[in-house]
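Good morning,

Attaching, inline, the backbone tokens for the sequence recovery test we're adding to the shared suite. The designed sequence is right after.
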């Protein structure tokens, strides 16, 4: 079944051996391999749906927003400083 789903022969055999020995409780090795396979599947799915490109675009947008907001804060601070300077003089 594992081979039919595209898993490499060696990995499938070692996984089958590990689960074949298991009696009721799941060995740590099997849990680890299953976790790694799950992680790999998630990563493949992410790449297939354009995840890295989406994140890069979102990061650029966020950086632009931070820069714009910083310049707005700076302009407001300068305006306030000018107003205080006029009031004090």
């Amino acid at each position: 079944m594992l081979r039919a789903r595209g898993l490499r022969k060696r990995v499938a055999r070692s996984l089958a051996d590990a689960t074949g020995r298991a009696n009721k409780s799941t060995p740590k090795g099997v849990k680890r391999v299953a976790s790694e396979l799950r992680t790999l599947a998630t990563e493949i799915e992410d790449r297939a749906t354009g995840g890295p490109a989406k994140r890069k675009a979102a990061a650029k947008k966020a950086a632009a927003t931070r820069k714009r907001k910083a310049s707005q804060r700076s302009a407001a601070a300068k305006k306030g400083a000018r107003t205080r300077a006029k009031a004090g003089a």
